[in-house]
Amino acid sequence: MTTAATLSSMISDVSPTMSAVRVVRLAKKYGDTQAVGGIDLDIRRGEIFGLIGPDGAGKTTTFQILAGVMEATSGVAEIFGRPARQMRSQTGYLTQAFSLYPELTVKENIRYVGDLRSVPPRDIASRATRYLEMFDMLRFQDRLAGRLSGGMKQKLALVCALVPEPRVLLLDEPTTGVDPVSRREFWDVLAHLAGDGLTVVVATPYLDEAERCHRVALMYHGVLHQIGTPADLKQSISSQRLELRTPDLAIAEQLLNGEARETVDIKDVQRFGDRLDVLVADSVVSRSAIETLFRSKGMAISDIQVGQPTLENTFVATPSRTHRHRCNEPHEALRVLHRCEGRQHSRQVRRGLRPARRQRCRQDHHDQDAVRTTRSHLRPDATRRGDWQPALAGRPPATRVHVPEILAV
């Protein structure tokens, strides 16, 4: 495991007051599409910072800019006071999709990434053993990466990101599809690393994981709407929460969003599984009023409890200040957007302008197979950085380039 002494030596030349990650008016456009719209961030050394947002919020684009993989359209992105692109050797990046080589074994992938990042062979071996033992993967070091489970692939990707011992670790939804036990182990390791001084920036769709961050930012349509500790964000909506369970949630939700608002100070109604979370100003008064209204309508309430708002309540209730397409809430805007995209796709399929989804997926897989690097291109028997370069230089032009190689350029 990375020791405090190792990390201290890595950052001894850094001022204690210097930000680990500094972003000022960062913007990125793809043609006419604004992916990131002028965001500001200041992340401290040793902090676990969470970036929360729906799909398409701009999280991955932000991570790619911070990793030096992509240039920003405008604005500043700095890692320890230097441009992010110049600090790629000090940045570890775990992508949302598995970006290592399935044709290589676990040990070969680690050695390959270490060579690309100019880590001495002896250090690669010792660090690989240390991190594989940490994740209980040492017995799988000779297994092909493509034959690992989803959780093990993510652990391998994290090991490869840690082998160069970066100052900043960027994790783009690292536990998506990972079982709960592995998720907990994953976050226990992150907490230990942050305690030793490593700065961790993580995007996660799991709001229970966001609770473990020192600070979080809510991102929507390329804009940061709120930044603060989880406790601060939950208090920011100035509401109390009623957990309401009833046999007919759909009718109850319609009633609470309609007639109930005439007599009850309801700020928001959110549906979570078998319950409705009703955000109100005064839980005692509102609970009594809701019970009275439901009795008058002949509707039964199975259970109603008072609680504090969760981070999920805060995220769903945070209004979108931009792109208010017939709604005020981010999750409603996404539903409208998905319906519009679905109708547009159906029209294109009928007109023959676009293949059906299954046909397109098969074509995508065919294209990936056509350009994928074969094991023979990589020469895993090489032991020094220089031995890998002829193999890389000899690749066919269509070969896809993996993130570890981009970071090493």
Describe the protein.
The protein has 409 residues and is of the alpha/beta class. It has two domains: 4-233, P-loop containing nucleotide triphosphate hydrolases (Rossmann fold); 237-343, Alpha-Beta Plaits. Helix content is 40%, strand content 21%. It is built from 16 helices and 14 strands. Strands 6-7-8-3-9-10 form a six-stranded mixed beta sheet, sandwiched between helices. It has a four-stranded antiparallel beta sheet with strand order 2-1-4-5, with helices on one face. Strands 12-13-11-14 form a four-stranded antiparallel beta sheet, with helices on both faces. Helix 3 packs parallel to helix 5 (150-162).
Question: Which descriptors apply to this entry?
Answer:
disordered N terminus, four-stranded antiparallel β-sheet, Alpha-Beta Plaits, elongated, 409 residues, 40% helix, Rossmann fold, alpha/beta, six-stranded mixed β-sheet, 14 strands
Question: Nutshell version of this structure?
Answer:
By secondary structure, this protein is an alpha/beta fold. The protein has helices spanning 4-10, 59-66, 106-116, 121-134, 150-162, 180-195, 207-210, 230-236, 249-257, 283-296, 311-317, 330-350, 357-371, 375-378, 385-393, 403-408; strands at residues 21-30, 33-43, 48-52, 74-79, 82-83, 91-94, 168-172, 199-203, 215-220, 223-228, 240-245, 266-272, 275-280, 303-307.
